[in-house]
Amino acid sequence: MKVLLSIKPEYAEKIFSGEKTFEFRKAIFSDPEVDTVVVYVTMPVGKVIGEFKIADIHSGTPDDIWDKTQETSGITLGFFSDYFKGRSKAYAIEVGEKRIFDVPRLVSDFIGRDTPPQSFAYVR
After folding, report:
1. What is the CA radius of gyration of the chain?
2. CB 3.0-4.6 Å disulfide test: which of 33, 47, 75, 124 passes with 104?
3. Domains of the chain: residue spans and CATH
4. Complete DSSP assignment for 1-49
5. Are 3 and 39 in contact (CB under 8 A)?
């Protein structure tokens, strides 16, 4: 099963270049069958550009997650700390095999609506 995640352009670029091997989230999908992330790049791109297999999903305190992921996080400690401020739990989706689409696609091709999700949406 797949989920569509909304990701900022600079982070999507880092994921597909290999510089960023973790996508951080405050909440994670509950369906254990999810094995692929479809990447919707937020504006000004506004398109789905590719997907990646989930190698693993790490969870723990923000400090623990930062310790595990900082080398290839693709973000600064300051950004990470601000993002998880006040949170006791953090999630890091480890990026596996990546595939960039030949032609960027519309979000509606994947979730049946034109509006991208704030966080994620299941692709049925």
Report:
1. 14
2. 47
3. 2-123 (2.30.130.30)
4. -EEEEEE-HHHHHHHHHTS--EEEESS--S-TT--EEEEEETTTT-EEE
5. no
